[in-house]
Amino acid sequence: MRAFRLRELRAAQSLTQVQVAALAHIRQSRVSSIENGDIGSAQVNTLRKYVSALGGELDITVRLGDETFPLA
């Protein structure tokens, strides 16, 4: 999922970055970084908290050629 999509999902739920940060127990600046595409440096747990604050679940899948392996 692209970072801009996370912003759209948050906005669709009428949540502000501050509200998501409070729900996820992370800093608002981290929410902003994630939504601006700085996902590469985000820890999996931080992304999991963000998605959970929106009411979702984070799935992680590895793709190797034609095979996929769910990790989390």
Structure keywords:
434 Repressor (Amino-terminal Domain), mainly alpha, Transcriptional regulator, two-stranded antiparallel sheet, 11% strand, Lambda_DNA-bd_dom_sf, DNA binding, Cro/C1-type_HTH
Describe this structure in words.
The protein is mainly alpha-helical and 72 residues long. The protein has helices spanning 3-12, 17-24, 28-35, 44-53, and strands at residues 61-64, 67-70. A two-stranded antiparallel ribbon has the order 1-2. β1 (61-64) and β2 form a beta hairpin. The chain is elongated. This is Transcriptional regulator. Residues 6-61 form the HTH cro/C1-type domain. Pfam families: HTH_3.
The count of domains is: 1
Order of helices and strands: HHHHEE
CATH top-level class: Mainly Alpha
Helix content: 40-55%
| CATH structural architecture | Orthogonal Bundle
> What is the arithmetic mean of pLDDT?
88
Q: At the third CATH level, what is the topology name?
A: 434 Repressor (Amino-terminal Domain)
Domain HTH cro/C1-type: 6-61
InterPro entries: Cro/C1-type_HTH (IPR001387), Lambda_DNA-bd_dom_sf (IPR010982)
Pfam families: HTH_3 (PF01381)
Protein name: Transcriptional regulator
